[in-house]
Amino acid sequence: MTSALNLMAERVARSDGAALDDYLNEAVAFWRRHYEDAGLRLTLSGLPREVPRALHLPLAIILHEICGEVARLHQPGEVGAALAVAFSASREDVGMVVTTTASPREDTPHAEVRAMIEGLVALMGGMTGWSDPREGGLTLRVRLPREGRSLQ
């Protein structure tokens, strides 16, 4: 989480409002390098252009934490394993879905990571949804209201 906070703070300090775009480009590049060594393909799609600044840091933290969990849970060398991050937006909220097809070494994310993500999303007035680990892979769905609380 500290990495996400530091990187986002740097991007906000030297950005004209595109801090989330800058953060995501750098974070995804980092995770792609990390995952490629383990045979896991990472894709990012649908980043909305007008994400409220108050949501930049929460989305960065959530993405960093779940990517770390996927790295921890993933079986290296699995053929065809992929991680997809997709964003969506409406007038009311911004959504992020993170899905992996990788077979996990363990069934679920660490309880601490799950609780931290759920707590952060709840603090922001949003909702989370997790896939059933018995179905294989891992999916996290997050919806954050555009007019929710701010961490700043």
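The above is record 1. Record 2 follows with the same two-line structure.
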Amino acid sequence: MKEQRLKNNSRQLYTVYPHMIHQLTVKKSHELVTARYSFNLMEMRLFTLIVSMIQDKDEDFKTYTIPIKNIIQTFGIKNKNIYAEINQLTTSMLKKIIIIPIQEEGKDKEIKTALVSSFKYEVDGRGVLEASFHPVLKPYLLQLKSKFLLYDLKNILKISS
């Protein structure tokens, strides 16, 4: 798999392109898989696409960039108002809370957080979306060695509802 990396303002950026989609895998901890959250189809696809950009060796989250035209191609979107839809989609995702059940010191507890901490959206016509994960999700998405689900990104793209 060819990995696309760009340097921008001393932060590491990962960019995904349509030719990479069938090579990407999604890796989530068991806790994240069993967590409670409610996403519509587009929210789930976008979240999964961003998760697929995480590399096994990553020790920290990066800023993940996706050109909007690649989202259109990847998901087969034919909506002429896609830029407005992406703007609405990202706003909606930032409002969604996930509840992750955990065990600490023999007690059942819950973590409540947003799945994505921020989106940056270029509205000047270039149409690039940048996403960042909330740091509390590190143990559920980074450096996973056991108790995780691994699947090909292309499988989530087949889901139609």
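The first strand starts at residue 4 and ends at 8.
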